User: Fold this.
Amino acid sequence: MQRRTFLRAATGLAALKADSINRARAAAPSVNDRTPEQAARDEDFWREIQQAFTVDRNIINLNNGGVCPSPKVVQDAMRRQLEFSNVAPAYTMWTVLEPEIESVRARLAASFGCDPEEMAITRNASEALEIAQLGIDLKPGDEVLTTDQDYPRMITTWQQRERRDSIKLKMISFPTPPPSMDDLYQRFERAITPRTRVIHFCHITNLTGQIFPVKKICQMARSRGIEAIVDGAHAYAQFPFKHEDLDCDYYGTSLHKWLLAPHGTGFLYVRKSKIEKLWPMMAAPASMNANIRKFEEIGT
Assistant:
């Protein structure tokens, strides 16, 4: 998502029309006809953008990929809804606010290009991905294929399944930068064995920013009966794409990174045909087996 697109959408997140957002919107047209390089050097423009955030001016934040600062308008909306939820929690939380998740689901699904019934709202990419990692049935000796540049928490999750379920985790390496996208694809293809059941890889790695040929790997995996889990933590809203560009069965991401959404938000995409066989991380009734909302059952 381009910054200009986000700024136009941000004002619709809350009724409060913060002056900082209005200033940022007013500044956006000034760079419409410029190259990215020219816009990047325009300090007057970026000063107006800076006013939309409450960041410490004594610190230069270069790590938006971990948790990005939310704009003031988002923070104000969060505070307002938190105060409202505390007025009468049993009513305001469950009767008023909780049903509104369906409008969020619909808008996220439209943004990602999928059916709303394939979109689960989670608290971050790690939770979304672990639902898939821990929810796929695997037997002793089954192999999971990933890379040595995948996110440490996701590797740790597979290592726990190694200890618990006696599966085998295989990690392939690749040079930085790789010779080509085909080279990345071929490294996965060569590492597949008759016991391979899952391929887990990043859309963009957090270490180097390497982009992977997601669609090609996912289609190759599906043709061989292998599950493919895509870690999209650093891709979503970093650049434009839709599900049709990926053709994946599972995709987990955080929304509090490049989308600038409230801290503690993410989503899990699961292809509709895969939902029923994927176990939720927290228990859900059998009546929800084919319901994407079973992955949101976190209790109270």
